[in-house]
Amino acid sequence: MRTGDAVPEGGSARRALLGGGAVVLSLAFVKLLVHLLTARNYGYFRDELYYIAAGERLALGYVDFPPFVALATAFARATLGDSPLALRLLPALAGATVVVLAGLMARELGGGRLAQGLAALAVLVAPNFLVFGTFVSMDAFDQLFQVSAAYVLLVILKRDRPRLWLLFGLFAGLGLLTKVTMLFFGFAVLVSLLVTPARRHLLTPWPWLGGVVALAFLGPYLLWNAQKGWPTLEFWVEYGGKVDEASPVEFLLEQIVTMQPPALPLWLAGLAFYLLTREGRPYRALGWVYVVLFVVFAALNSRFYFLAPAYPALFAAGGVAVERFFWRRGRRRWPVLAYAAVLAVSGVIVAPITVVPALPPATLAGITGAFGGDAGVQVETREVSELPQIFADRFGWEGMVETVARVHEKLPPEERSEACVLAGNYGEAGAIDFFGAERGLPKAISGHNNYYLWGPGDCDGETVVSVGVPRERLEGVFGRIGRADTVRCRYCMPDEDNLPVYVSRDPRLPFEEAWPRFKHYD
């Protein structure tokens, strides 16, 4: 029996109910339940509307993401329906699985009930993990596949099972099918093997075969990009140029805040376990994976949440270190229980005001508005107001579509039947696609990201109703431009409020020729 697994006598059933596995599964169930109970709160998230549109246009890739998230969204809609709960079930299950994987890693490191429970609890309460179970995103699945690959790596290092590199390659490949940041994880693993005794694995064919398996999943996306003229590279150049500069210290502070400040001693203890202790020496590569990823992401000024999948391995090792220090005979156990209580309470307090849509919007706005909306943690470069962006981007979409529909309905019948709707970004376009049909609107066109590649369809530009498109972008294309209405919304992102709705006529050039003027990748 592992350290910390001792339970009162009473048979195997009682031991099972009180064991580490039961604790971990209970915490995973709590996470799943939180997401299921709040899934219907607020509205559809901006990116969800985009992924729904992508799921209706399945392809080998898209400008800003590989195909997995579009496939998952299409699958959810086909099997479960269009409700927010149906769409968000798979991300919620992915997040709950990450909680289980953290506990399993602690178990593989020799941890008992306490270590497994601490690791799982730390993942449960971390905003960086909680948030991606609340809506459809690449990151929910990226976290699942990266943490799964890290778990397999741990098993390889512990049990010397080289053929498991093929399974590692499978998870890494699924990650590449989800988000190209998996390439950084693969690079970190390679560097970490080279600088530790685990480099002996590189003398066998299995890690290289695993790499071939992983890269095979990237092949279709590369083929799609080659056929389209490498739009993903163009996107990353534009996207990277619009990220606010953050120093390595600021990046570290973002990690502390978004992984839950009380969890800091736990993941530092885990890092020290891997890098500094004799017990952690066989698994030292896992510590170096974190170090390499931190340095790379900080140097590239990446989003702070790109590093999140590296933390479950640290939480697992930290749980083992804490358990071994406090759970020895003669040491008091109450400090560990108190620490676990602090972690849990911090999650209960922080989650509803940062990542989980549990509070009424007016109540939440009253709390977060006092701290500038995002409380100092900037997820995007866009300005926020009363609500953090992660909440605000769920408001205003249906109202925007209704405003556009009113303008469209007032057009003369001969114009209305041929008019097209041009949106400024993929959120607006996705909302029109999703909500607009029952209001008599055609499918939207947009120059933003993959909507640009989907093109203008059969729009001839004779009559265009536009929303969120700057007037100066229209002026070079149309002879007559009139403001027909204004989109107003409460609690939405400021850049989606007071949006002008224009009706443009008399195109100055063929619309196919004008189409590149609306292109923007960001």
Describe it for me?
This protein has 522 residues and is mostly helical. The chain has three domains: 343 residues, no CATH class; 32 residues, no CATH class; 122 residues, no CATH class. Helices cover 58% and strands 6% of the residues. Strand 1, helix 22 and strand 2 form a beta-alpha-beta unit. The longest helix is centred in the first third of the chain and has 25 residues. It starts with 11 loop residues before the first helix and ends in an 8-residue tail after the last helix. About 1% of the residues have low confidence.
Tell me, briefly, the overall form. Answer: globular
Biggest β-sheet: strands ordered side by side in the sheet: 2-1-3-5-4
Could you list the spans in which at least 5 consecutive residues all have pLDDT below 50?
6-10
Number of domains: 3
Please give the oligomerization state of what you see.
single chain
The overall average pLDDT, rounded, is: 92
Radius of gyration: 25 Å
Question: What is the rounded distance between the termini?
Answer: 53 Å
Structural class: mainly alpha
Number of strands: 5
Which percent range fits the helix content? Answer: 55-70%
Order of helices and strands: HHHHHHHHHHHHHHHHHHHHHEHEHEHEEH
How many H/I helical runs?
Answer: 25
Most strands sheet: 5 strands, mixed
What is the strand content?
5-15%
